[in-house]
Amino acid sequence: MRHPRPLGGDPLRVIDGPLVSLSAMVLNNADGAKDQMAVKRKPPWLRAKVPGGEGYQRLKGILTENRVHTVCEEAGCPNMGECWARGVATIMILGDTCTRACGFCNVKTGRPPVLDRDEPRRAAESLRLMHEGAGLKHVVITSVNRDELPDGGASIWAETIMRSREACPGMSIEVLIPDFEGNWGALQMVIDARPHIINHNLETVRRMYPAVRPSAKFDRSLELLRRVKEQGVVAKTGIMVGIGERDEEVLALMDDVQRATRARVGGAEPDACDILTIGQYLQPTRNHLPIHRWVTPQQFDTFKREGLARGFKVVESGPLVRSSYHADHQADVLTTVASEREARVRPAGG
Q1: pLDDT tens digits for range 87-134
Q2: Fewer C-beta within 10 Å: the chain N or C terminus?
Q3: What band does 63 get if pLDDT is binned at 50, 70 and 90?
Q4: What pLDDT shows up at residue 1?
């Protein structure tokens, strides 16, 4: 009845047993096939192109040869072909076992067996191979939650960023980080490593947190984004839609993010979270939260207009949008990375 490897996605694991179980009516994983709800058929606008092309094949060859694992492949991202052809990939650090059990996520959960102190060196070397051999120009680094560690894995995060920057000059680095359980000293280690963009996804609206992110806090995530902006780093967040939220709650979330993350850097005008991504939730397995609705392309367009009107500088909104979608373009527009690349290739005296 279950996938061969352990799955995440069951928030009931981390709370006391209910007096009355509603699992069969909500999560599809309680009493066998007779209680499982049918997976909703995807609408025509959710068709993705088959990956291919010279850039895609070159990067895939290096990944296969060097046994590098990407989130793009693990999650079956629909934009993998387009992103790899553009020279963008996402890697995951701190192992493959998460200490949380979010209702939407297919990463396995449990207590991670070890902490690999050599991982930053190997991650940087893998990125160097992709940067030099396949033209990787932007990397997104993400991780599982490691709540059992005193710093949540922040020291590994910081070393990975610094080693990657040294190994791949000219490549922009974006990090998609956990909340470190509100350990702001741990967050500071990541900020001090100076990635180009720091992303922390809210994932859903405030009301849906008990089901979608049972171990997280909406206001804690807002405070993380505010601290990122306060120190002059480009801040990014993202949400899924179609998991049970209402359209007006999405608009209220946009207002909350802009209001809560506004910070003044030096003598500049107050500035808030820069980038917002919005994509359709897709149920990974029957053990995960069900899809509530298919959001139409027209509604995604409305979300984009509303987000830009509320103060976000970039809004990527569409059925197939994921956190890393067009991430290289965002880095070029909102950071100095494009001019830094140009300076490196410009002839002396040019």
Answers
A1: 777 888 998 889 998 988 888 889 998 899 999 998 899 899 888 887
A2: C
A3: low
A4: 32
Q: φ and ψ at 159, to 5 degrees?
A: -65, -40
CA distance linking residue 277 with residue 286, whole number of Å: 25
∠ CA 288-325-243, rounded to 5°:
25
In the numeric block, the tokens 């140009």 are attached to 342
Distances (CA, A) of 262 to 12, 154, 193, 228: 35, 24, 22, 10
Backbone φ/ψ region at 186: left (φ over 0), alpha (ψ -120 to 50), beta: alpha
Q: How far apart are CA 113 and CA 133, in angstroms?
A: 33
Span 140-185, pLDDT tens digits: 999 999 999 999 999 999 999 999 999 998 899 999 999 999 999 9
Q: Provide the token pair at 132.
A: 């030099």
Distance linking the first and last C-alpha atoms of the chain: 65
Distance CA 93, CA 95 (A): 6
Tell me if 277 sits within 8 A of 325, measured CB to CB: yes
